[in-house]
Prior knowledge:
Elements: E1 5-10, H1 26-40, E2 44-50, E3 67-72, H2 89-103, E4 109-113, H3 115-128, E5 132-135, H4 140-146, H5 154-166, E6 169-172, H6 175-185, E7 192-194, H7 209-216, E8 223-227, H8 236-245, E9 253-257, H9 261-264, H10 267-271, E10 282-286, H11 293-299, E11 302-305, H12 314-321, E12 326-328, H13 334-340, E13 344-346, H14 352-363, H15 375-381, H16 383-404
Parallel strand pairs: 1-2, 1-4, 2-3, 4-5, 5-6, 6-7, 8-9, 8-11, 9-10, 11-12, 12-13
Amino acid sequence: MDHLRIALLSLHTCPWSRPGGRYTGGMNVYIRNLCLELAKLGVTTDVFTCCHEDNQPCNFSGPTCHTGLIHINDARSRLITDSGPADYASSLAQAVNSHCREQDLHYDVIHSHYWLSGMAGNQLKYIWQIPHITMFHTLGALKNSSLPGSPEPESRIVHERSVIHSCDRVIASTSIEKQAMVNRYGVSADKISVIPCGVNPALFRPIQRPAARAACGLPDKPTLLFVGRPDPIKGLKNLLQAVSLLGPDNNFQLLVIGCSNRRMGDPGQAAGYGSEGLRDRVIFTGPVDHEKMSLYYNAADLCVIPSYYESFCLTALESVACGTPVLATCVGEIPEISKLTTLCKMIPDNRPETLAAYISIYLKGNAPDVPHPGTELSMNYGWNSIADRVIREYRDALKVLVEAV
């Protein structure tokens, strides 16, 4: 048991996929960084994932001493759709098991990510007779309650409930998520550990703003930043409407990362307003590699997070680590980050009028200077401490299994 081997399941998206897809986001960043830190601590992880659409390559740099990436070459793994991904969980579990049997691979713990992987993980748990720890990253019930009108299918919530009750342990990234599992999914609080996502302070750190803007090819003027997929739950439409309300007297630009003009169309139309006052202010960059995001955080005067729902909100953590103020709704880890530093300001709602009022304070230069959280940030959210806590979950799950035998 000294040298742990972990089967990490990310079956609906490859963690090393190029950014910008519908399923590439914070979970991908989490898995990549967790594997890196686990490797430093001597824990071996093999990441099982689906094959890429059209055989597109990913940016995995090749096997390391303690990290492997295994694409399951199963025809059904290419057919996962929003309408029925649960239909393929059994097939994917069988494909993973067949690969491991052929390669004589054995593991101590299964660590699954997202509900589809959780379903496959529960099947592999019984085949392999080892503990299964799961992490959801988003919950269907919380998404539905946060943004009515864009419902996740009831089948997803049913499957999430099944995974929660059948696995051995659950890792929640926030206390809000843990409480939702207890209240909405009927699981015991004792089964859930809260371990937040992490940040790399060596990468996400303050640099001079003019230099960052020059490196990003941006004009040197006040800059707002939005980071997120073109998903209504991210609240970008509200932010675009807020920008249109600020009027021509405010000289600033809004940088939108993760959404392209091709996806969003004219910014005025995306906001539901006329394009006057928006077209010259809004810059859509499209996807940006995570390793380059520090430049964009440092180029901004303010990072705005108008989301209806976030499972954690890694954007806020990375922005604060760069010393860039955050204006955010009360989602994910925002309440805890705002306790750690006044760089993170929590606002009551994401109505365009509310956003415009708070943004105008920053544009007028009335926001106070705030010291960088530094050591406290590393202690609470450094990836080394996050990985250490995850390892303790692995060992605790193995201890329970041994005692039950």
